[in-house]
Design a protein that fits this description.
By secondary structure, the chain is α/β, with parallel strands linked by helices. It contains 15 helices and twelve strands. A seven-stranded mixed beta sheet has the order 2-8-7-6-5-3-4, with helices on both faces. Strands 9-12-11 form a three-stranded antiparallel beta sheet. A two-stranded parallel sheet has the order 1-10. Strand 6, helix 9 and strand 7 form a beta-alpha-beta unit. The radius of gyration is 23 Å and the shape is globular. This is Aminotransferase class V domain-containing protein. It holds the Pfam family Aminotran_5.
Length: 463
């Protein structure tokens, strides 16, 4: 691999001007010199032949996937470092990370490369944002009792981070209790407005709103553009979108969404190896460093501290940076599919809905939300005969599916609401990625049918 990579000087302005979006390769017409040969089903299978063939892996959402082509590229980067670490550190790493950041800019429609940093994962990005907010409380820029709003269905580590950084700094946390199942975006918007009104009634200034783009469990695509607009109307200081599942799964457009901060993992649906995520910080006030505030820093303080978040994030000490460097190779990989990443997302959505509807028809249940509120994952109701009556039951049954039937799928317990009769208490979150086959979903279907026919109940599983 050549180390000759076009550079930008992140210590100054981002490429000294507006980032130009690279032209995408065309698949047609045939006389186009950049025409690509589309990947075949056998080639897709070969790219993921390291997956355990005995397991129906319909849970891409949890850990993602990485094709052999990208694993080989990662290995080349690792060996380049090990061959001559000093040369790699002083001459290769920073410009190569900058190149990966530049490749992300047009995909998410950011303003320029200075707004994009690469970090380990969405949890790290959350720490960046919440440490920034915590300092504002500690230094008196925010007042004790000012509020942060987050969703009840926020990812566990994000919820704990909000309490760790905001509550301990004197802030007040308001949770938005979203409905599930949900079939109308208006219900989500109404509950979000209720949370902001609660802050008004308590005379609290809302300093931060943390909003999922796609909730993890249960999974629903939220109307983030509308929720951000409401935040602006209501005077919320900062909006942070946790899009951990989003890039490669649904449309991600920074200018359209309009949030102050946005993060998404590149290793879930964008084929990068674990772990890498981007963190977008919206440029404000004509600043050229591409951050919301000079006080946005990586949580690990290293030699680059004070040189801007993108550079701070590109060196946090000696570690393996290879997952951040393969982004150009990933873009070449997705262009082998018809329609590129947009085509992949469209087909994954269509297939996961098709498989979800097949399952609920076989089990006599229903989906957890409308198809329009899904991307490449959907919640599928499980028969009540399985006896899922707690989070512990859901986890035990998930383990049972893995060990007994070779099916890997996350399960969700939905407590019944007072007065409900016959409501489903168990849901499975199924994913669809390019490597999945219909037989994997049939395997899951038949496993559930067998359990019901055998009179199985979660109460029979060991504690």
């Amino acid at each position: 691999m050549s180390s000759a990579v076009t550079t930008d000087d992140d210590h100054h302005s981002a490429v000294n001007g507006v980032e130009k979006h690279p032209k995408k390769l065309k698949l047609t017409p045939a006389d186009n010199p950049h025409t690509l040969t589309l990947i075949t089903p056998s080639e897709i299978a070969a790219e993921f032949n390291h997956h355990d063939a005995a397991v129906a892996r319909i849970n891409n959402g949890s850990f993602g996937c990485c094709p052999e082509t990208i694993l080989a590229a990662q290995r080349r980067w690792q060996l380049l470092f090990l061959r001559q670490p000093d040369h790699f550190y002083f001459s290769v790493l920073q410009p190569s990370v900058a190149e990966s950041r530049r490749k992300i800019v047009p995909i998410i429609n950011a303003g320029d490369v200075g707004e994009v940093s690469l970090v380990d994962n969405a949890t790290t990005a959350t720490a960046v944002v919440l440490q920034y907010v915590s300092r504002a409380f500690n230094e008196g820029r925010f007042n004790a009792g000012d509020a942060a709003v987050m969703l009840h269905y926020a990812y566990g580590s994000v919820k704990k981070s909000v309490h760790a950084y905001v509550s301990r700094a004197g802030g007040h946390v308001i949770e938005v209790k979203l409905p599930f199942p949900v079939y109308d975006e208006g219900d989500i918007i109404a509950e979000f407005r209720n949370a902001l009104n609660e802050a008004k009634l308590e005379r609290r200034k809302v300093r931060l709103a943390v909003i999922d783009h796609i909730t993890s469990m249960p999974c629903v695509v939220l109307p983030v553009k509308e929720l951000v607009r409401i935040c602006r109307e209501e005077g919320v200081d900062q909006v942070f979108i946790d899009g951990a599942h989003a890039i490669g799964c649904t449309k991600v457009d920074m200018k359209e969404i309009g949030a102050d901060f946005y993060t998404s993992n590149l290793h879930k649906w964008f084929f990068c190896p674990p772990s890498v995520a981007f963190l977008y910080c919206r440029k404000k006030g004509g600043k050229e460093n591409g951050v919301v505030d000079d006080d946005v820093h990586h949580p690990v303080v290293s030699h680059e501290y004070g040189n801007g978040l993108p550079v701070e994030s590109a060196w946090i000490g000696t570690r393996d940076y290879s997952s951040q460097l393969v982004v150009p190779e990933v873009l070449k990989f997705v262009e082998r599919f018809e329609g590129g990443i947009e085509g992949i997302m469209k087909r994954n959505h269509e297939k996961v809905i098709e498989m979800g509807e097949m399952l609920v028809k076989a089990w006599g249940t229903h989906l957890g939300c409308s198809p329009e509120m899904c991307a490449s994952m959907v919640m599928v109701g499980l028969p009540n005969e399985l006896g899922i009556s707690s989070d512990k039951d859901a986890m035990k049954l998930r383990f049972h599916f893995r060990e007994k039937f070779g099916v890997e799928v996350p399960l969700y317990y939905r407590p019944p609401v007072d007065g409900e009769v016959g409501a489903l208490t168990g849901y499975a979150r199924i994913s669809h990625q390019v490597y999945n086959t219909v037989d994997e979903y049939y395997k899951f279907r038949d496993a559930v049918i067998k359990l019901v026919q055998d009179g199985f109940s979660c109460a029979q599983l060991p504690s």
